[in-house]
Structure prediction request, 210 residues.
Amino acid sequence: MDLVGQLKAAGVVPVIVIEDVAQAAPLARALVKGGLKVLEITFRTAAAAESIARIRAEVPEAVVGAGTLLTPHQVRAAHAAGAAFGVAPGLDPAAYGAARELGLPFVPGVATASELSQALSAGFTLVKFFPAEAAGGAKMIKNLLGAFRSTGVKFMPTGGVNAENLGDYLAIPEVVAAGGTWIVPKKALAEGDWAAIERLAADAAAHAAR
Ligand code: 3PG
Prediction:
């Protein structure tokens, strides 16, 4: 299945900020058990690359990607760790150029009509809409679609998405999946409370069953 198919099947993508590599596999297992198979490990911590490698090795049923890829160096590190895809908050030719060279599926971020235009010109039809809530939420995506629907563009909103507003995003057919950190709360992760994380994942997965 291609990335769009995997994202659609998942509906929700946990955006993960992980500090301790030892937590990577048990965390991924809890999320997969809860029904969320596509995971995004953000390059906001030093543990990101090794966490991706651990999940690849120990939780093969997960589809693990890399998020917050700001530089070509991070893109290469994500690819070397075995990331299945890369995500960026913005649209940087250096970052997506590096991903293309490596054949790494890449989802650049856009927040405006001009950025979306540029992403389409660069050949992307799947974009991250970031920061989703602050940039106008589901209403903004609907307005962008008014002008851009004919391009076939698909969105993955993240940033301020939560259990309450998830349904607004998933009701838009061009939204393949929504992402966010609410499924892996800092406290639950620090405590290794896998049961709580599995419950949050199951809750999100139930919302996403469309
Ligand atoms: C992202 O990079 O996708 C976002 O920072 C996630 O935002 P959230 O913490 O509001 O879910």
